Q: What sequence folds into this?
């Protein structure tokens, strides 16, 4: 899970869904207190659990 401070949300990748590894990407809005599923572009990574992720932003935005 990573914090997207610019958009005031948490981003969650993977985990378990009904006992099966998942590669879903979810966003939790800190303002609204709600979750929604995101649909990233490109090829989805392999389903995972307990795999750290890092999100960065360039200095130019």
A:
């Amino acid at each position: 899970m990573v914090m997207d401070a610019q958009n005031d949300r948490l981003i969650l990748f993977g985990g378990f869904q009904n006992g099966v590894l998942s590669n879903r990407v979810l966003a939790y809005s800190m303002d609204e207190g709600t979750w929604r599923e995101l649909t990233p572009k490109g090829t989805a990574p392999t389903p995972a659990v307990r795999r750290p992720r890092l999100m960065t932003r360039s200095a130019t935005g």
About this structure: The first strand starts at residue 2 and ends at 4. The CA atoms of residues 13 and 28 lie 12 Å apart. The mean pLDDT is 80. The chain has no helices and six strands.
